[in-house]
Amino acid sequence: MFKAELLERAIQVRSSQEDGARNLAACPSLVLNADYTPLSYYPLSLWPWQTAIKAIFLDRVVVIETYDREVHSPNLDMKIPSVIALKQYVKPSEFPAFTRFNLFLRDRFACQYCGDPHHLTFDHVVPRRLGGRTTWENIATACAPCNMKKGGRTPKGAGMHLYAQPIRPTHWQLQQHGKLFPPNHLHETWRDWLYWDIELEA
Questions:
Q1: Residue 167 has pLDDT above 90, yes or no
Q2: Burial class of residue 10, CB neighbours in 10 A (0-12, 13-18, 19+)
Q3: What is the pLDDT of residues 137-165, one digit of tens each?
Q4: Terminal-to-terminal C-alpha distance of the chain
């Protein structure tokens, strides 16, 4: 590991001297699992170029695609990896953590009462005052106006209807939802390894 760190430092210093205004931070590596599927779709599994190069020299990844740009050390010229695959398979947990982000992703970043994607918060379907718990099965994404309209009532009591009943999603389900939200930047070398629900632009 010590040699890998020294090499990374040498490459980083040399590249910063030679590249000047060129921004190497714009050259992240897409990280695939050992089965050649992305570790994550949303957020997309990306590593900074320094992390990717260190992983190469630690023999933890295989280089699949590269950028046209190179970094240099005193004894080595190397193209920056654009797609890498882990050598050891990382098994995702069956169920994701119960977080605000994952909740919004489950509900596709839209209010479950009106579909509005703005001013999102979360709503207890069965209010806490009526014994409702803070769980996957009782929390739904709601915009602030709908949340205020519903107040401390049940959806039925407020005359409101959920688009879908909240469930505890699996990791796979969240990743499928993540395919609906491709990032603004998709390098051409990533295309063969991503399966978005919309067509990639040239």
A1: yes
A2: middle
A3: 999 999 999 999 999 999 999 999 999 99
A4: 39
| 14 and 85, same domain (yes or no) | yes
Beta bridge partners of 32: 38, 85
Is there a single domain that holds both residue 132 and residue 65? no
Question: Buried b vs exposed e over 143-173: b needs ≥16 C-beta within 10 Å?
Answer: beebbeebeeeebeeeebeeeeebeebebee
Classify residue 198: in a domain, yes or no: no
Residue 152 belongs to domain spanning: 100-169
- The rounded radius of gyration (Å) of the Cα atoms in the chain is 22
User: Hey, which residues does 70 pair with through a beta bridge?
Assistant: 79
75 and 21 share a domain? yes
6, 87: one domain: yes
pTM score of the predicted model? 0.74
